[in-house]
Inverse folding.
């Protein structure tokens, strides 16, 4: 497929990088500094800026992306927005957004097939934890035993099999704004106790459970195409971060240090990346006391600046060189 | 598990050996801890070995001390134990920056056209993509003048830079005023109010890492700079890596002194043209402009034996032997051979240099 489409965009003169991000994203700012230094031309679109799009579908498929033949896209945060600002304030904007989404995903896919894009809003928005776990397992990576169920009976059987199990959200973290003063926010990853389960009805809405892995440390990997930057996170010494390093302890941070993935694990991750078609993102692994690596999840638009800074990796420089 | 496993230092904890004692620079938590040289030796010689191996090496004569050392190292989370040391590479000590100039100092004095003069300087710095600059106001400016200066800068939004501001304290500068200024001008990273009534460090809600420092000391002119003090030591990745191959104060720095002379540092005598008839870029191209940029602490007399050499701010403008660019900072009262801090200005050995620089003028 890729070979067949690659003739579509050949011209390399006056290449302009299109960056899609958020106003306050530090990583974007740092990459831009390096782009300045390398004299590469770019244009930045933040989540509120309008992108003028035209796609041509006719008998000559060569023209699909003709307007963008000199562009490379980097979708760092969020996605392209094709509505002029005036429209985003109207009551029908939600409808327009679903229309936009269909085009956006198609556009990203075309760019992907032409190797003209890094990152995507599709993988971020439609990031499916369960599907990713499945693909990771298929790629030969270990995953914690996982149960997605509506049944108390199944949950009890699952619970009895392991020393400890956890629950986390399936798709998006919980965040309800009841009114101005009252907000409900999920607590991230939590340990499920027997008392919690006893409290449930026989059937409940779909929930996600996972065997809790007693960990030696966690590993955060940032990757973009072929380069990988990994960092070990020693979160097991701290009660707060023991279950999930993202329950951050801000007074005394976990030790974070450069990490070198064993080649076998790296190859399996590469396989996963190929299968999932996610070309950039941050992967979380956990390592148990027997040095087994377990895939937990991938965040296609995850933050990497903290990895870059703490490990002195200069990831932003590397990205600017790649774009 | 701990017994069979080998120990490793977390790679962002850097032991640095001094003449009589050493330190561990915790680059992640920004702390500096003193350790004995014996412990430094253990850390540098035996990484990747088990505790038992170390004990045996010392013929089991110091088991008790070694256990003591390791319980300290574990408590501070400087070390960990592993059976896969190959997974944990050393940290890369490369220092890099996208731009030739990373920081600048502008000394501002009052004149009728001070706004236009400084606008010209700031435009040039923005063109050079200088990210951090410090404006030091030695004269007493009115609040209106300071605000007109900030307003002039605030319209230059085509690049993200951070500003540090040195201003003489006056009564109108209360908390409310300072908070408003920080809110209004988001490019201000810090404000230092000299000649204050108190020494105080202030942070405000919703303003992240931005801060105000009030100091009693009166900052009369550029000669007040260059002090070496424990409180100014910085333990982070950037400073540590930069000081491996560069000068931690002068690298990638430009300055414009109060007369408009373009220099590496305002306290230095040598200048490379005046802002009235020369651009900063032209000055930078002078063959001597960068001559101090690569002088590292490892090359400086005395400093090279000091345990603080990679966390120190250094100073090349005021040095003990004015003719020797590799001599110790004059305003450093620390002696790494005795580990004693003393007042530098009364040290009889420094009087000749003090006279040379005319500090009493």
């Amino acid at each position: 497929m890729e070979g067949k489409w690659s003739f579509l965009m050949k011209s390399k003169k006056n290449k302009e990088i299109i960056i899609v991000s958020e106003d306050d994203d530090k990583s974007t700012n740092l990459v831009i500094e390096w782009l300045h230094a390398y004299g590469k031309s770019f244009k930045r679109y933040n989540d509120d800026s309008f992108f003028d799009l035209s796609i041509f579908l006719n008998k000559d498929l060569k023209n699909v992306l003709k307007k963008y033949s000199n562009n490379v896209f980097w979708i760092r945060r969020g996605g392209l927005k094709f509505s002029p600002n005036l429209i985003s304030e109207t009551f029908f904007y939600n409808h327009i957004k679903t229309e936009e989404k269909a085009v956006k995903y198609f556009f990203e896919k075309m760019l992907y097939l032409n190797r003209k894009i890094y990152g995507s809003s599709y993988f971020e928005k439609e990031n499916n934890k369960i599907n990713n776990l499945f693909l990771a397992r298929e790629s030969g990576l270990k995953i914690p035993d996982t149960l997605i169920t509506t049944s108390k009976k199944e949950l009890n059987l699952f619970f009895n099999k392991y020393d400890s199990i956890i629950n986390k959200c399936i798709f998006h973290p919980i965040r309800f704004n009841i009114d101005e003063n009252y907000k409900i926010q999920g607590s991230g990853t939590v340990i499920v106790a027997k008392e919690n389960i006893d409290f449930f009805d026989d059937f409940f809405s779909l929930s996600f459970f996972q065997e809790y892995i007693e960990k030696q440390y966690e590993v955060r990997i940032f990757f973009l195409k072929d380069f990988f930057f990994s960092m070990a996170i020693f979160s097991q010494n701290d009660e707060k971060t023991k279950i999930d390093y993202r329950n951050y302890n801000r007074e005394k941070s976990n030790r974070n240090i450069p990490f070198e993935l064993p080649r076998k694990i790296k190859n399996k991750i590469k396989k996963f990346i190929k299968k999932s078609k996610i070309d950039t993102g941050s992967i979380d692994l956990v390592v148990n006391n027997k040095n087994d690596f377990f895939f937990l999840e991938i965040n296609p638009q995850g933050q990497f600046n903290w990895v870059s800074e703490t490990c002195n990796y200069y990831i932003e420089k590397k990205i600017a060189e790649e774009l | 598990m701990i017994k069979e496993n080998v120990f490793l230092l977390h790679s962002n904890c850097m032991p640095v050996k001094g003449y009589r004692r050493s330190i561990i620079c915790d680059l992640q938590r920004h702390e500096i801890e003193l350790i004995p040289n014996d412990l430094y030796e253990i850390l540098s010689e035996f990484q990747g070995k088990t505790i038992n191996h170390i004990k045996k090496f010392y013929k089991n004569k110091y088991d008790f001390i070694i256990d003591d050392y390791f319980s300290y190292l574990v408590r501070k989370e400087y070390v960990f134990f592993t059976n896969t040391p190959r997974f944990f590479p050393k940290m890369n000590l490369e220092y890099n920056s996208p731009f030739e100039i990373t920081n600048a100092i502008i000394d501002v004095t009052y004149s009728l056209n001070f706004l236009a003069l400084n606008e010209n300087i700031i435009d040039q710095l923005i063109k050079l993509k200088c990210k951090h600059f410090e404006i030091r106001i030695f004269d007493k400016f009115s609040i209106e003048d300071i605000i007109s200066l900030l307003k002039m800068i605030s319209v230059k939004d085509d690049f993200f830079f951070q500003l540090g501001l040195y201003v003489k304290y006056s009564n109108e500068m209360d908390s409310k005023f300072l908070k408003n200024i920080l809110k209004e001008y988001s490019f201000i990273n810090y404000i230092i109010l000299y000649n204050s009534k108190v020494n105080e460090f202030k942070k405000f809600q919703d303003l992240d890492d931005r801060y105000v420092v009030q100091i009693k000391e009166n900052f009369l002119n550029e000669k007040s700079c260059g002090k070496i003090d424990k409180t100014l030591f910085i333990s982070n990745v950037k400073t540590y890596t930069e000081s491996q191959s560069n000068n931690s104060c002068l690298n990638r720095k430009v300055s414009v002194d109060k007369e408009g002379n373009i220099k590496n540092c305002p306290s230095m005598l040598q200048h490379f043209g005046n802002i009235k008839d020369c651009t900063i870029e032209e000055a930078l191209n002078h063959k001597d402009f960068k001559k101090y940029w690569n002088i590292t602490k490892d090359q400086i007399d005395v400093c090279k034996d000091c345990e603080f050499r990679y966390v120190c701010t250094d100073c090349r403008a005021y040095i003990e032997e004015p003719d020797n660019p590799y001599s110790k900072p004059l305003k450093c009262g620390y002696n790494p051979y005795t580990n004693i801090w003393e007042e530098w200005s009364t040290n009889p050995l420094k009087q000749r240099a003090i006279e040379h620089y005319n500090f009493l003028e």
